[in-house]
């Protein structure tokens, strides 16, 4: 009964969980989840300048982003995402592509209503409105077309400059101690996972040979003698190679 229940559970998991997710299960084992953030009401968000379709919750100390239908959170050098802003977090083993478009000084600009010396009349978007419209805003390229994000006299940076800024932010991000520590942990987990995979893929005959080689010579000799005796032949019998 237990085997039947286990088989049914594994079959259901295989049908529901994508293959790419199941492949990442091993490396996510043992990763703790970020502490919850308590909200009295669903949060408002603001769209960030120079970061298309990226929204952030400004009224909390935690950097909580909304992008591409997911809520995103960085904690202790690790990324998590969820369909919900306050629960359901799952480990994400990469850096989301939007992150290096986010200006690290956005909190100060938000507080001062000032974006690089220009008045920033940011738009507060209620949670329900975001949920109802984010997809159409994304498809219609709402923020790209408006192109100001509420910044008076906004002038977009040239594309080469934006790419240079992205590269610089990425380098600074990689230098963070918590990010480096997590990267080292991931590399070690990947190495162990690869070793387990290679071991599981070894032919059974090869495994048997390796096990035989690992036995002491005395034990191997005793096993050969027992085999010859079971065949009715003395040890070192009439081998065609014996002179």
Provide tags for this entry.
alpha+beta, six-stranded antiparallel beta sheet, globular
* Mass-distribution shape: globular
Separation of the first and last Cα atoms: 62 Å
Please give the order of strands in the largest beta sheet.
Answer: 1-2-3-4-5-6
Residues in helices, as a percent range:
40-55%
Mean pLDDT comes to: 78
Q: Tell me the number of strands.
A: 8
Give the C-alpha Rg: 30 Å
The sequence of SSEs as H and E is: HHHEEEEEEHEEHHHHHH
Please report which band the strand proportion falls in: under 5%, 5-15%, 15-25%, 25-35%, 35-45% or over 45%. 5-15%
Give a quick account of the main beta sheet: strands, pairing sense, barrel closure: 6 strands, antiparallel
- In the predicted model, the low-confidence regions spanning at least 5 consecutive residues are 1-27, 229-243
Question: What structural class do you assign from the helix and strand content?
Answer: alpha+beta
The number of helical segments is 10
């Amino acid at each position: 009964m237990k085997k039947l229940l286990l088989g049914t559970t594994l079959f259901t998991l295989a049908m529901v969980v994508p293959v790419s997710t199941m492949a990442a299960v091993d490396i996510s084992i043992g990763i703790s989840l970020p502490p919850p953030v308590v909200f009295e009401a669903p949060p408002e968000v603001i769209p960030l300048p120079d970061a298309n379709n990226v929204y952030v919750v400004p009224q909390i100390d935690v950097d909580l982003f909304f992008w591409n239908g997911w809520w995103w959170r960085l904690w202790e050098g690790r990324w998590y995402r969820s369909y919900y802003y306050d629960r359901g977090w799952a480990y994400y083993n990469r850096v989301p592509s939007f992150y290096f478009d986010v200006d690290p000084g956005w909190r100060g600009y938000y507080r001062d209503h000032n974006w690089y010396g220009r008045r920033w009349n940011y738009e507060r978007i209620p949670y329900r409105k975001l949920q109802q419209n984010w997809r159409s805003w994304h498809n219609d390229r709402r923020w790209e077309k408006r192109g100001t994000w509420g910044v008076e006299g906004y002038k977009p940076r040239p594309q080469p400059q934006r790419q240079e800024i992205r590269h610089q932010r990425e380098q600074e991000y990689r230098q963070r101690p918590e990010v480096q520590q997590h990267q080292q942990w991931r590399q070690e987990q990947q190495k162990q996972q690869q070793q387990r995979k290679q071991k599981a893929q070894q032919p059974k005959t090869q495994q048997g040979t390796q096990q035989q080689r690992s036995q002491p010579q005395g034990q191997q000799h005793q096993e050969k003698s027992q085999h010859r005796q079971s065949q009715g032949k003395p040890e070192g019998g009439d081998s065609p190679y014996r002179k």
